[in-house]
Amino acid sequence: MYQVLGLAFDGCQASGLASPFDVFNVTNTIWKQQRGENEDLYRCRLVSRTGEPVTCSNGMRLLVDSDLEDDIEADLIVVPGIHHLDAKSLIKNLSRLDKECHWLQQRMQRGEVVAANCSGVFILAESGGLANKDSTTAWWLSGLFRNRYPSVRHHADQLLVKDKGTYSTGSMTANLGVMLEIVEQQVGRQLAQNAARTMLIDASQSYASPYLFMQEQTDHQDSLVLAVESQLQRDVSQKLKLEALAKMHAVSARTLSRRFKKANGINLSDYHQRIRLEQTKLLLETTNLSIEQIVERVGYSSQSSLRRLFQKELGVSPRTYRVQLQQQSAE
User: Fold this and answer.
1) Mind listing the pLDDT tens digit for each residue in 24-66?
2) How far apart are the first and last CA of the chain?
3) What is the pLDDT of residue 177?
4) pTM
């Protein structure tokens, strides 16, 4: 039996604990059905500082099995995200978890594997467990993470990074993918694939580049430009009509163009082309849509125009881009 511990604390993200535990529960069920076993393959328990129930960020109350003083051996420790409104509140909430960080440090020194998700990766880094290692976190926290932990080799464009007994993820799907990968390593690929099919988990996406582009373009504080960006991202398949867009936001086309270029360093048409490109990359990475379907969904005039843009910007065709991603995921 494999022992899984979930680190619970007030303000943690419930999904960061419940979803991984669900993966192991489904794995247990399939294991029993296929092998005729009576005992579970995985035993999942929650630990907290005092062993008392905790209140998650969504208001859910979780009963806890033990406190940090209990010497329970673990094959895997799951660390959920920390609730926060902004960078300041994240660091404030993180400072309250000093005992949890110390406990995690001791556990890692014993060789126990840790998987941290989203802002929970900050706990792992704070414990010293990521020093001189590769890591990632949620895409919108990448700048804060790099500045706070300069010794960590941060990969902002990756959704899942593993290095020497640590897993760090920047999305819930990637976090579920980690659990499936661990099941595969411990028990075998067939059981992991069966669990993935049962739960309809697609853990193939490994790049966060479309979201990183949006983050890079929203570091300014111009409310007009933010509103226009949001509209363009939402209506990515629509043609860019400068005069109509400016009228909709009650400014002249000249004012809109000037403020947009000042805020982002690129003009509106270039921005529109970039978000179309990033949306295309996202669809190639995460769906089985045909190139023809993607062209229609994103709003390109033809497949040939999409191929020309891809060749110009990335040096490969859309089909080659998808094949390369599939090969990387299979490695």
Assistant:
1) 999 999 999 888 878 899 999 999 999 999 999 999 999 999 9
2) 28
3) 86
4) 0.66
Residues 249 and 324: their CA atoms lie apart, in Å, by 41
Main-chain phi, psi angles of 169, to 5 degrees: -135, 155
* Residue 53 and residue 62 in contact, taking contact as beta carbons nearer than 8 Å: yes
The Cα–Cα gap between 143 and 206 comes to 19
For the chain, the maximum distance between any two Cα atoms, rounded to a whole number of angstroms, is 72
Q: Tens digit of pLDDT for each residue in 235-275?
A: 888 889 999 999 999 999 999 999 999 988 899 999 899 88
Q: What 3 state SS string does 221-238 have?
A: CCHHHHHHHHHHHHCCCC
Task: Specify the residue for token string 């926060």.
Answer: 84
Dist. CA 46–CA 297, nearest whole Å: 44
Helices (H), the chain: 15-35, 87-95, 98-109, 121-126, 142-148, 172-186, 189-199, 209-216, 223-234, 242-248, 253-264, 268-286, 291-298, 303-314, 318-330
pLDDT category, 331, cuts 50, 70, 90? low
Q: Return the structure tokens found at 23.
A: 């993966």
Residue type at position 170:
G
Please give the structure tokens belonging to residue 124.
């792992």
Which residues are CB-neighbours of 72 under 8 A, at least 6 positions away?
3, 5, 45, 47, 66
pLDDT at 194 over 60: yes
The burial of 118, by beta-carbon neighbours within 10 Å (0-12 exposed, 13-18 middle, 19 or more buried), is given as buried
Nearest alpha carbon to residue 177 among 145, 206, 148: 206
> Two tokens at 320?
């080659």
Quote the mean pLDDT of the chain: 88
pLDDT value at 216 more than 60: no
Picking from 81, 139, 145, the residue whose alpha carbon sits closest to that of residue 278 is 139
At 51, phi and psi to the nearest 5? 85, 0
